[in-house]
């Protein structure tokens, strides 16, 4: 449902995508949230994580597969997420534009 | 395969509905996983874990709530619901909640039914007796006039004809109507057993003062009294007015009776009218026939024999204060004009309401206070239950807040639920009230007026509805306020899940528990005091032996107009009665114990002038053998003998109290005294002294009395007293027949056993005591149940801590103490508060107490220990049950 690969990403969406990328094969909601808390050092509510994962999948930036079910999860399966190429492209674009903006700021502040 | 889950089922349901179906498994699984981790790694207890699950689930659900998913187009908002539909929805929700927890619902409903039931029952009695308007129009302008002599301690004395006629003349400006009444007896011997009919002589204006109306015929008119005003003397007509009830009972409601003549007491009377049903005189109630009281020449000068009651209606525009001031003036004028008879006399106006119900007002209000206290205890009990329940339901409230509910909305829902509880309770309570009222009526002494009007009528139902609303607010408001407050401030803050409310809730539980114990304490103490004072009363010496004594009151004036005739008649009657098998002894007396006294006379030692006489004594008449029959011991001298006849020296037997007053420690035998009686003073020689006794019953003080022999003062109004070998009522018929064998037309005025009369004399005290004791026990039970509930709730909350303590090696006693300590502190505080409250309200009770102070240390200590013991035992049992858990189970949180 990705209509436009140049779509803008919200800040939380970027964090979620980055966490999914860094977790690799182990990316389901619980570690995604922990990763954001641990690395980005900011609060992320479970609800927000789920809603964002859902939204990103609907935007076509994530795909998911249902994993194994286990008794410690009350017999419920995990859903593992993987970022799509458009997601990577979008993240890179954001990064590039941010870096450019920062370079301009640094110049303006006389640090270069 | 069933798989153990850690998150509550309700949370499952919530999440399953709140999140998109595609994510359901994932989210629930994640939560389950994290919950397990928290439990295993952080050793979180089951309760806290459940709470945590709730909070997380709610926060997730809140994210997926419609309208919150920002990337979707917002849906149109639902229209806000109207107040009524909200109320109905709350009601439905509350009803479902009640049905889901039948045990809780049953306990609360029964408790409320008890509180509302007994309160309504007592109110229905109070409504009938105290609040129902009296059957006299403008009753607040109607009153009774009494002679008050404070120096003699007489609050309400009857008035002599001379004084009454003076009041009538002087009170023209104050009273629209002022009438005198005098009790009278008419005998009806035309058919069936001879019957005496309690009657009342009433002077002009009696029916007008009371606003009575005829059912048939007419009431009394001027001609009946012999003239157009109060100055008429002599003359008048022999006419009678019947009460509706007597007319129905004796004459079958025969309307042709009006205008006909009927013979009563050997005289022909014309029946001129029948009163409306239910009419009753406020003085001398229970009279069947009314006849005109006619003044005779010389009545104006009679200021000694006080035997009239007086009924009055204030003139329009005269205030009660003005009337009282005028009466004070009239009183002092009469005292100045007739110093011999009227010194110290005042005129007392007693409103008719006070006359009729004044005596029973206090006991009934005390009982109402008692049942209101029970209702309060029940409320505190249920408020505590609801408080605990609200804590359990915090998740639900948090959900509703998360979904956008306002706090006011939650409070309203909780109040709706408590209203529902109270309403179900009050329906059950009305059924209970019906039975309680019947029980109370069965127990109530007949001396309480207007009891038969008690009914569960509209005002009573309105009262029940009112207290139901009040109850709903009482039981619901505090828990609702407390529960919703903790929700808003605590549950949604992620780091501190929902403990902030519990400190204040703990305090509230303490307050409710203390209040319950304190209120129960007040009731138990009051009941204890009443019981002790009743026991004191029963332990008193009567001074005579009331068992197996029959008393039959007779008036023989009509049949035996001469003194000789009366003396001979009673001798014959006594001979006949003594022949009856089973009769041990028999005699006659004018006023045996429990029979109304005649007014006392001034007495002086012979030689003293009468105007200096400082003593009064109650004079009465007895025949030989009387003291032995009744069991009054002879202390000195002799009883009456057959020789104490008409020609012999006028003799008297006096009691110890009188001997002490007149002669101190000296022997009274052979001394003479003068009694100032009408028509002329008599001089009597003391031949015997008997023991003191309580003439009017156990709560009466022995009074100075003197007896004259019947042969020297042959009254026609005497009571036959019969000591029987067996149960006295079994001999009643044969004794009656023995009396009728001398004269078959002689009716009896009153027949009873002295034990019956004695039990009647304490019946009001017994009534108040028994009811208050039952209510106090109910209160004690409720408070104990409440304490038990709270302590076991706290103990359950602290299972984990208990588990740890046991696991660490705490002995059972230590655990028990740790858990029940809090409850014991509350109970002790409640008992102290209850003691203080009782001391503060003891003035209310003082009037009901007898020979016992409201601060009686034995009662105070005993009751405190009792309640302390029972409540402490209850809280220990609760704590014991909680401490008997397997530590492993407790630590795992099940």
Name the features.
heterodimer, A: 112 residues, alpha+beta, two-stranded antiparallel ribbon, 4 helices, 2 strands, disordered N terminus, B: alpha+beta, 22 strands, 51% helix
Protein model, in words:
Chain A has 112 residues and is an alpha+beta fold. Chain A has helices at 11-23, 29-40, 46-58, 85-108; strands at residues 62-70, 76-83. A two-stranded antiparallel ribbon of chain A has the order 1-2. In chain A, α1 crosses α2, α1 (11-23) packs across α3 and α2 packs across α3 (46-58). Mean pLDDT of chain A is 86; it is low at 1-5. Chain B contains 25 helices and 22 strands. In chain B, the strands form three sheets. In chain B, strands 1, 2, 3, 4, 5, 6, 7, 8, 9, 10 and 11 form an eleven-stranded mixed beta sheet that branches. A six-stranded mixed beta barrel of chain B has the order 14-15-20-17-19-18. In chain B, α5 (102-131) packs across α13 (407-443), α14 runs antiparallel to α15 and α15 packs across α23 (812-846). Chain B is elongated and about 120 Å long. Chains A and B meet through α3 and β2 of A and α2 and α3 of B.
Q: What's the helical proportion of residues of chain B? A: 40-55%
Query: Taking Cα atoms only, what radius of gyration of chain A do you get, to the nearest Å?
Result: 16 Å
Largest sheet of chain B: 11 strands, mixed
Low-confidence stretches of chain B: 70-77, 492-501
Q: Over all CA atoms, what is the radius of gyration of chain B? A: 38 Å
Number of DSSP helical runs of chain B: 25
Poorly predicted tracts of residues of chain A? 1-5
Helical proportion of chain A? 55-70%
Principal-axis shape of chain B equals elongated
Number of strands of chain A: 2
Principal-axes shape call of chain A: elongated
Distance between the termini of chain A: 42 Å
**Largest interface, and how many residues on either side?**
A-B, 23 and 31 residues
State which percent range the strand residues of chain B make up: 15-25%
* Assembly state of the chains shown: heterodimer
Mean pLDDT over the full residue set of chain A: 86
């Amino acid at each position: 449902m990705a209509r436009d690969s140049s779509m803008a990403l919200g800040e939380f969406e970027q964090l979620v995508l980055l966490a999914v990328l860094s977790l690799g094969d182990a990316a389901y909601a619980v570690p995604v949230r922990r990763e954001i808390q641990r690395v980005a050092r900011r609060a992320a509510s479970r609800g927000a994580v789920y809603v964002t994962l859902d939204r990103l999948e609907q935007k076509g930036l994530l795909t998911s597969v249902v994993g194994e079910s286990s008794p410690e999860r009350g017999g419920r399966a995990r859903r593992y997420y993987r970022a799509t190429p458009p997601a990577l492209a979008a993240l890179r674009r954001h990064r590039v534009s941010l870096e450019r903006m920062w370079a301009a700021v640094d110049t303006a502040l006389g640090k270069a | 395969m069933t798989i153990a889950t850690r998150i509550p089922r309700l949370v499952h349901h919530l999440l399953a509905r709140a999140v998109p179906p595609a994510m359901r498994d994932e989210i629930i699984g994640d939560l389950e996983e994290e919950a397990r981790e928290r439990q295993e790694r952080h050793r979180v207890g089951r309760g806290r874990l459940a709470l945590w699950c709730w909070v997380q689930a709610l926060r997730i659900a809140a994210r997926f709530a419609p309208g919150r998913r920002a990337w979707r187009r917002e849906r149109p908002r639902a229209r806000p619901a109207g107040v009524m539909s909200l109320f109905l929805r709350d009601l439905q929700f509350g009803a479902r909640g009640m049905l889901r927890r039948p045990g809780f619902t049953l306990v609360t409903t029964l408790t409320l039914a008890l509180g509302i039931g007994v309160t309504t029952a007592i109110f229905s009695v109070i409504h009938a007796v105290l609040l129902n308007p009296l059957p006299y129009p403008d009753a607040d302008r109607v009153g009774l006039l009494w002679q008050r002599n404070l120096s003699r301690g007489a609050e309400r004395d009857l008035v002599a004809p001379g004084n009454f006629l003076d009041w009538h003349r002087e009170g023209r400006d104050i009273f629209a109507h002022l009438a005198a009444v005098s009790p009278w007896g008419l005998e009806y011997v035309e058919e069936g057993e001879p019957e005496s009919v309690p009657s009342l002589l009433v002077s002009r204006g009696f029916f007008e003062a009371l606003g009575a109306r005829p059912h048939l015929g007419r009431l009394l008119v001027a001609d009946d009294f012999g003239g157009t005003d109060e100055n008429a003397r002599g003359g008048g007509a022999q006419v009678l007015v019947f009460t509706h009830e007597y007319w129905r009972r004796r004459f079958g409601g025969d309307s042709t009776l009006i205008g006909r003549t009927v013979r009563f007491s050997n005289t022909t009377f014309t029946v001129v009218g029948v009163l409306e049903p239910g009419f009753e005189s406020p003085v001398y109630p229970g009279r069947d026939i009314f006849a005109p009281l006619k003044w005779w020449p010389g009545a104006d000068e009679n200021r000694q024999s006080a035997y009239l009651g007086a009924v009055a209606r204030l003139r329009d525009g005269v205030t009660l204060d003005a009337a009282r001031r005028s009466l004070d003036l009239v009183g002092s004028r009469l005292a100045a004009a007739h110093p011999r008879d009227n010194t110290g006399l005042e005129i007392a106006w007693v409103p008719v309401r006070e006359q009729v119900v004044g005596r029973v007002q206090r006991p009934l209000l005390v009982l109402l206070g008692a049942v209101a206290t029970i209702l309060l205890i029940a409320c505190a009990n249920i408020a505590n239950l609801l408080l605990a329940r609200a804590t359990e339901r915090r998740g639900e409230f948090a959900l509703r807040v998360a979904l956008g509910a306002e706090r006011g909305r939650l409070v309203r829902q909780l109040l709706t639920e408590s209203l529902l509880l109270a309403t179900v309770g009050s329906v059950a309570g009305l059924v209970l009230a019906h039975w309680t009222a019947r029980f109370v009526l069965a127990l109530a002494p007949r001396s309480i007026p207007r009891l038969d009007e008690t009914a569960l009528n509209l005002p009573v139902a309105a009262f029940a509805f009112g207290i139901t609303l009040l109850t709903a607010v009482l039981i619901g408001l505090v828990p609702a306020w407390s529960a919703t407050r903790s929700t808003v401030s605590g549950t949604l803050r992620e780091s501190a899940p929902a403990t902030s409310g519990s400190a204040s809730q703990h305090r509230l539980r303490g307050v409710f528990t203390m209040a319950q114990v304190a209120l129960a304490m007040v009731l138990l103490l009051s009941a204890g005091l009443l019981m002790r004072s009743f026991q004191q009363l029963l332990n008193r010496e009567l001074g005579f032996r009331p068992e197996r004594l029959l008393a039959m009151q007779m008036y023989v004036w009509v049949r035996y107009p001469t003194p000789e005739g009366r003396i001979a008649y009673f001798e014959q009657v006594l001979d006949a009665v003594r022949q009856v098998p089973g009769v041990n002894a028999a005699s006659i007396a004018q006023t045996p114990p429990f029979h109304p006294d005649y007014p006392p006379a001034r007495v002086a030692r012979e030689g003293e002038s009468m105007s200096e006489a400082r003593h009064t004594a109650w004079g009465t008449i007895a025949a030989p053998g009387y003291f032995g029959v009744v069991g009054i011991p002879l202390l000195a001298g002799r009883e009456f003998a057959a020789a104490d006849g008409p020609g012999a020296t006028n003799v008297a037997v006096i009691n110890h109290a009188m001997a002490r007053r007149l002669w101190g420690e000296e022997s009274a035998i052979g001394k003479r005294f003068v009694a100032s009686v009408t028509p002329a003073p008599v001089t009597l020689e003391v031949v015997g002294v008997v023991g003191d006794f309580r003439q009017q019953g156990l709560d009466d003080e022995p009074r100075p009395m003197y007896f004259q022999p019947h042969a020297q003062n042959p009254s026609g109004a005497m009571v036959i007293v019969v000591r029987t070998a067996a149960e006295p009522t079994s001999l009643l018929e044969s004794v009656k027949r023995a009396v009728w064998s001398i004269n078959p037309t002689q009716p009896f005025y009153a027949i009873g056993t002295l034990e019956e009369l004695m039990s009647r004399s304490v019946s009001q005290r017994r009534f108040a005591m028994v009811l208050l004791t039952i209510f106090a026990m109910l209160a004690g039970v409720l408070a104990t149940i409440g304490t038990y509930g709270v302590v076991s709730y706290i103990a359950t909350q602290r299972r984990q801590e208990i588990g740890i303590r046991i696991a660490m090696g705490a002995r059972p006693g230590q655990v028990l103490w740790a858990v029940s300590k809090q409850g014991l502190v509350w109970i002790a505080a409640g008992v102290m508060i209850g003691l203080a409250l009782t001391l503060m309200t003891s003035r209310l009770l003082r009037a009901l107490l007898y020979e016992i102070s409201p601060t009686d240390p034995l009662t105070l200590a005993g009751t405190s220990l009792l309640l302390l013991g029972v409540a402490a035992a209850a809280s220990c049992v609760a704590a014991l049950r909680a401490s008997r858990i397997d530590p492993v189970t407790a630590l795992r949180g099940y």
